[in-house]
Write a structure and sequence with these properties.
This is Helicase ATP-binding domain-containing protein. The chain has 874 residues and is of the alpha/beta class. The protein folds into seven domains: 4-173, DNA primase, PRIM domain, CATH 3.90.920; 181-260, no CATH class; 286-385, no CATH class; 402-475 and 541-575 and 667-703, Rossmann fold; 480-536, no CATH class; 576-663, no CATH class; 708-863, no CATH class. The strands form seven sheets. A seven-stranded parallel beta sheet has the order 15-16-14-17-22-13-23, with helices on both faces. A five-stranded antiparallel beta sheet has the order 4-5-7-6-8, with helices on both faces. A hairpin with a 2-residue loop joins strand 27 (800-807) and strand 28 (810-816). The protein is elongated.
Length: 874
């Protein structure tokens, strides 16, 4: 039961007070409010019904009883003093219209005078006088025999000398059921042609707005913001009232929305009203999937459970959107003998379905007893069959956000545990972007006696972290990089160096040659580079480098290697090589017969005739291979084990001929302690790559974002979609008006800035800026499958369009795999890229906003379904 407050006198009486005496109670009763709970509701009923205590259903502020000081009411009362009706007749009507009485009492009847009062409990308190009066008036419409003074919610009622009825289950009347049954009663009383005139009269009296079908405008919304948004630019709803949706669990995120207006005489009854569409939102075959997806519906369908009126109405509002859904519902309640003693109540549902047919399906949380344990969406239909191009929050995904201070403290504890651990394995700490990972690392460098190597994603970030460390007094050396000299070198020299990198050969001979020849443009730079490299290699203290260099370094002299950001995503997965078949054949001709590499190439050429993916053994790299002048990464080819045969296709335009792609093996040193700090780290992926027994995973608490992430998932925003809609970025930029954008690199550049998917990690130049992130960064399917194949998982499955999936607390449709491992790999890659892009704004600590245009939902996103940023459909 919902506890409720009521005004009640302390005076017991064995007689009815007259009008003059009742005026005294106007003063006394307002100052005596009682809280009624489960353990004292019977006592309250006895006080009023048997001991004659005067009461008022409402409570008041300042100890004064008036409409101006009205505080709230959760009781509805009616008084009857007539020879023409009886309690039995009134109770029969309440049962017919599913308005359960809490209690009724004899109000000191004398002789043939039939005087009694009935009291209803509302499922939530009315703190608005307007709403309280509307509910009281709806009762008066249904029970015109009641005393006319009962339309006043501040009326004081005489007590009684006998309780006629008490329902100790303390049933409650809901706002929407009261208005709906009032409409049904008026139709039954005045006929289908004329009853809406009475509803219009009710609207004029109470101010309750009517919809286009001349029915009361009331709905259930999931939060205040959503409810108010419904009323923007709604001329019929200038004064909406939100009240708590009440039930025993007090679901604070649900609200009744009653629309009120300053009434105009515009509700004329005419025969040319707008007719609603006869087409339902869901086809009849939807009914077949409901049983498997919804436990409550399955029990309803099989007759295993007798549903309450609230549950029945919740199911009905969902079935009302399905072809043949109303028929299925009515056949089910008939087959399960819901109203065997009151046959007329079956007919009520025909009207209920008429009444609710333009209403939204009720959310599961508003009626279903299983909502706390079922991974449901917004309602039964969206749970069973999500709409296309919509992302829906799972209602009970149990997100738990903490404050920034608590999140920081939890991360620091995890970081300290990892640092202090003696286990020389991978310690992976998942923590939010902008939480302060770099600061924690620098504080460790300042205070520890350990020799620490830091690895960051880019050269730019490497230099930034080094400067921050030195500013804190930390003695640290940074690794040099030839890529940092690119802009200062002649193009032909850089082309030579880049070719050496691509073919897996050392650039040192090219540097030594330039130095020996005393090349004016290069020698000085290369000498400086080699000097810095020697200093870095010989340093006996803290050092900082990039992810890329880390994979080829000897780290044995360091006590600890700390990796900032996700090394798997930044380096392991991108470490791939593609070689045209024609080049493999040319390479084979340059090798001696019987050479191990030639034999491996022969096996590759045999495998591609029958397999897309295949495995070959590693071979040793022979020094003689270094003299072969071909643009093939021979060292990687020797080490490679996992191969993918690829043909040019319309979906991938990077190939002009048949090729093989393979993963360049990256080997990390054993018996080394690594700590990886990342917002995108995935436990399963880490265990796949580093070994299940070689990973300790820490998940830090997540803080609520300070900024806001708005997500628009109505369009897929894949590369192919955006190529087919070349003006879409321009449309978005015109709508948003934001300066900064992150999207695909190779698409037409309609925006400022150099950031794009693939080069966002760690960049801080857009901190506290509003950003549009546009795109869903899918990878070519062969990349997902090659990575999965290398990890030992199955790959015999294809991408399945519009697959219903659940991820990050959302349910949505996506082009993905049924295979859980392949899907995990795909989602990991897409999510990592999106998180890095969104993370550039530093929403965790900055009061800015990011608009994400993608059908892949991120955590803490505010989903903007059905929002069209373009006035013209794309």
């Amino acid at each position: 039961m919902n506890e409720f407050n009521v005004s009640i006198s302390k005076i017991s009486s064995k007689r009815e007070f007259n009008n003059k005496e009742m005026e005294m109670f106007d003063i006394l009763i307002a100052d005596n409010t009682e809280l009624i709970k489960n353990d004292n509701v019977r006592s309250f009923v006895e006080q009023v019904g048997s001991k004659g205590h005067v009461f008022c259903p409402s409570t008041f502020k300042e100890g004064l009883k008036s409409k101006d000081t009205f505080e709230q009411s959760q009781l509805l009362a009616l008084h009857f003093d007539s020879k023409e009706t009886s309690f039995k007749e009134i109770k029969d009507r309440t049962e017919q219209y599913d308005l359960p009485i809490l209690f009724a009492y004899d109000a000191f009847s004398i002789g043939s005078r039939n005087k009694f009062s009935i009291v209803f409990l509302k499922d939530s308190p009315s703190s608005s006088l307007k709403e309280a009066e509307a509910m009281q008036n709806s009762l008066m419409m249904m029970f015109p025999e009641a005393d006319k003074s009962c339309d006043d919610v501040s009326k004081v009622y005489n007590g009684g000398n006998k309780v006629l009825y008490f329902d100790d289950t303390t049933p409650a009347v809901s706002v929407d059921m009261l208005f709906m049954n009032m409409s049904l009663h008026l139709r039954n009383r005045y006929g289908a042609t004329n009853y809406k005139r009475k509803i219009v009269e009710f609207s004029k009296t109470t101010g309750v707005a009517l919809n286009e079908r001349k029915l009361p405008e009331i709905s259930i919304v999931e939060n205040f913001t959503e409810g108010i948004k419904e009323n923007i630019n709604d001329k019929n709803s200038q004064n909406p009232i939100m009240i708590d949706y009440g039930n025993s669990e007090k679901l604070s995120n649900l609200k009744y929305l009653i629309k009120f207006e300053d009434h105009e005489d515009k509700y004329s009854i005419s025969s040319n009203q707008k007719k609603p569409s006869i087409h339902k939102d869901y086809p009849s075959d939807t009914l077949e999937s409901l049983s498997s997806k919804c436990r409550l519906y399955r029990e309803f369908e099989l007759g295993n459970k007798t549903l309450s009126q609230r549950e029945l109405l919740g199911v009905a509002t969902n079935l009302a959107k399905v072809e043949t859904g109303a028929t299925k519902f009515k056949d089910t309640i008939s087959a399960n003998s819901y109203y065997s003693s009151r046959k007329e109540k079956y007919d009520n549902w025909s009207y209920y379905f008429y009444y609710i047919k333009d209403k939204y399906p009720r959310p599961c949380t508003s009626f279903c007893s299983y909502h706390a344990t079922c991974p449901h969406g917004k309602n039964i239909l969206s749970t069973s069959k999500p709409k296309y191009h919509q992302i829906e929050k799972i209602a009970n995904c149990n997100d738990h956000w903490v404050g920034l201070d608590e999140a920081w403290k939890d991360f620091k504890e995890n970081f300290h545990s990892a640092v202090m651990s003696r286990d020389k394995i991978w310690h992976v700490i998942k923590c939010q972007t902008a939480l302060g990972k770099t600061q924690a690392i620098l504080e460790l460098l300042r205070d520890t006696h350990l020799r620490v190597l830091i690895a960051v994603p880019t050269n730019k970030l490497k230099r930034e972290v080094c400067e921050r460390a030195k500013a804190m007094g930390v003695d640290i050396i940074v690794s040099p990089s030839l890529h940092e000299l690119k802009d200062d070198l002649p193009q032909n020299v850089w082309d030579d160096i880049e070719n050496l990198y691509e073919t897996g050969r050392s650039p040192m001979p090219r540097l030594n040659k330039a130095i020996a020849e005393d090349d004016l443009e290069c020698a000085k730079l290369f000498k400086q580079y080699k000097r810095e490299l020697d200093e870095f290699n010989n340093m006996d203290g803290h050092a900082i480098t990039t992810h890329r260099r880390l994979t080829s370094m000897d780290v044995s002299k360091f006590d600890l290697v700390i990796i900032d950001e996700d090394l798997i995503f930044s380096t392991v997965i991108p470490s791939k090589t593609t070689v045209p078949i024609s080049k493999l054949k040319k390479l084979k001709k340059k090798l001696n017969t019987g050479d191990p590499l030639a034999a491996k190439i022969v096996k590759i050429l045999k495998h591609i005739k029958k397999s897309e993916f295949f495995t070959l053994s590693e071979i040793d790299y022979d020094r003689s291979y270094s003299g072969i002048k071909m643009t093939v990464n021979i060292p990687a080819l020797c080490d490679a084990k996992y191969f993918c045969y690829r043909k040019p296709s319309n979906f991938e335009n990077d190939l002009t001929e048949d090729c093989v792609s393979f993963i360049n093996p990256i080997k990390f040193q054993e018996k080394t302690k690594y700590i990886m700090l990342s917002a995108t780290a995935d436990k399963d992926i880490c265990e796949y790559c580093f070994g299940e027994d070689n990973v300790k995973f820490y998940t830090s608490k997540e803080a609520k974002l300070t900024g806001t992430l708005f997500q628009y998932g109505g369009k897929p925003m894949s590369r192919s979609f955006m190529r087919d809609n070349p003006g879409i970025i321009g449309q978005i930029k015109k709508w948003s008006g934001l300066e900064h954008t992150i999207s695909f690199k190779k698409l037409p550049n309609h925006y400022k800035g150099d950031l794009h998917f693939g080069n966002c990690s760690g960049c801080d130049i857009l901190k506290n800026e509003n950003i549009d992130v546009i795109g869903t960064p899918h990878q070519p399917e062969w990349i997902y499958k090659l990575f999965s194949y290398a990890l030992g998982f199955g790959i015999d499955t294809k991408l399945k369009p519009n697959t219903i999936v659940t991820h990050n607390g959302y349910r949505f449709r996506f082009n993905t795999y049924d295979d859980k491992n392949l899907r995990a790999i795909q989602f990991y890659m897409i999510e990592s890229e999106l998180e890095q892009a969104v993370g550039r704004a530093r929403l965790l600590r900055c009061e800015c906003a990011v608009n994400l245009f993608s059908n892949f939902p991120l955590r803490q996103a505010t989903i903007m379904n059905n929002f069209n940023y373009d006035d013209n459909e794309i």
